[in-house]
Amino acid sequence: MEDEAPGAPVDLARLAAALLELYAPAQPRPDTYVELLTIHKSKGLQFDTVIVPGLDRVGASDTPPLLRWLKVPRSDGQQLIIAPVAATGAEEANPLYRWLDRLERDKLLQEKRRLLYVAATRAERSLHLLGSCEVIADKKTGELSVRAPTQVSALGLLWVEPSVSGEFERRLAESGDVEGEQGRVIPRDPVLLRLPDGWQRPEAPVAPSIEVRSLVRATAAAAIEFDWVTETARHVGTVVHRELQRCARDGGALPGSVAERVALQRRYAAELAELGVPYDRRSAAVEKALEAVRRTLADERGRWLLDASHASAQSELALTGVVDNGLVSIVIDRTFLDATGMRWIVDYKTSSHEGAGLDEFLDNERERYRAQLERYAQLMQALGDEPIRLGLYFPLLSGWREWAPGTMG
Q1: Total structural domains in the chain?
Q2: Burial of 93 by CB count in 10 Å (0-12 exposed, 13-18 middle, 19+ buried)?
Q3: In this structure, are 354 and 272 located in the same domain?
Q4: What is the pLDDT of residues 362-400, one digit of tens each?
Q5: Mapping DSSP to helix (H, G, I), strand (E, B) and coil, where does residue 376 land?
Q6: Banded pLDDT at 305 (limits 50, 70, 90)
Q7: What is the reported pTM?
Q8: Inside any domain, residue 203
């Protein structure tokens, strides 16, 4: 009733006629003649002919759970009954557990009956239920008979009907004695073969020599001493590095409202707690991380470093390679190509400095980290032939130092 105006009275006669036209077609395509469906998938559908195979099959049994429980209704609500599985090596199972297990098996059997009913009622014209039974012979008389299927199978549920069990007996009587049928062949291992007398192992061919050169991981000689940095300061640097990576990826902006600032503080506090910063130092550490990010986003140089429009820009780029016959693994905080085609390799340092002599402090930091960044340049040169320039950026100081590899400034 798409043409009805909103709010108009409902025409019940038209609604009833429309509902009669609602159905799920059994064939999504007109050229489909056979469909393979599970019983669950067939719910609500109808077919001219339905074939249900394997009624004698049963699924694998589940491992007994550690606990079984049941909610029993009472006049004042519900009562929960719980029973644990028997201990390993116990002679008898928990009687309450056995009772709950029996109830659970009965529930599963009822569910099988329901599914069998669903499968049987999908057919409009003909229904074919297929299953097989074992034929056994009496030890004394040799008379053949049909062994009843297990009760937990779908065929076992139908076996109580004389029309089903009688059909199997009738088919056995019609077929008569089964003769000349080959038994199932069980594969065996091959017969043991013996070597003839005097056999000798042939000489193995000489393998070609392979020259192996061991690489020593360069760590001790190139390590930077951080004795002057406290554990908390190092963790603040980790949080600042993560946030600058997010800013470079998603576009950085200062918190625009009190709620956003509080959410940012909570996130920083959670990250610092995961890193092991004690509670009494966490508030100051959060403020220090916020100040570093705020100063970076307010600084023209900081915004240029984080600009997502740079070509070939990456943050926290991990590289492993050989430098001076040693295996080196590094992580570059920020790298990109600027408009002139220059490759920049930048490292963030959350160092702080108070008082005069800031330029002298930044110059000393450049010399301190020169070898580290020039090692970065050696690995990056293997990825491209662009000219390289190195940089140190100090978020808490809005400080910057840059130089070309192999130069003094």
Answers
A1: 4
A2: middle
A3: no
A4: 999 999 999 999 999 988 888 888 999 999 999 999 999
A5: helix
A6: very high
A7: 0.46
A8: no
Of 175, 204, 237, which closes a domain? 175
- The strand pair at 47-52 and 123-129 is best described as parallel
Q: Which of 95, 45, 86, 46 is nearest to 66 (CA)?
A: 86
pLDDT digits (tens, 9 = 90+) for 48-88: 899 998 888 887 777 888 888 888 888 888 888 888 887 77
- Residue 142 sits at the vertex; the CA angle it makes with 141 and 148, to the nearest 5 degrees, is 110
**Of 336, 354, 355, 338, the residue nearest 346 (C-alpha):** 336
Q: Are residues 325 and 398 in the same domain?
A: yes
Question: Computed over its alpha carbons, how large is the radius of gyration of the chain?
Answer: 40
Residue 320 has pLDDT above 50, yes or no: yes
What separation, in Å, do the N-terminal and C-terminal C-alpha atoms of the chain show?
A: 79
Residues 390 and 408 in one domain: yes
Return all residues near 161 (Cβ < 8 A) that are at least 6 apart.
Answer: none
Residues 319 and 394 in one domain: yes
Contact predicate 149/130, CB 8 Å: no
Identify whether 397 is part of a domain: yes
Same domain (yes/no): 236, 282: yes
Same domain, 78 and 159: yes
pLDDT of 100-157, one tens digit each?
888 888 888 888 888 888 888 988 889 898 888 888 888 888 788 888 888 888 888 8
Long-range contacts at 375-379 (CB < 8 A, ≥ 24 apart): 375/222, 375/323, 375/328, 375/330, 376/319, 376/330, 376/332, 376/345, 376/347, 377/345, 377/405, 378/321, 378/323, 378/405, 379/319, 379/321, 379/323, 379/328, 379/330
Percent of the chain exceeding pLDDT 70 equals: 85
Domain boundary among 298, 315, 336: 298
Q: Same domain, yes or no, for 284 and 318? A: no
Domain span at residue 35 reads 12-46
Tell me, yes or no, whether 326 lies in a domain: yes
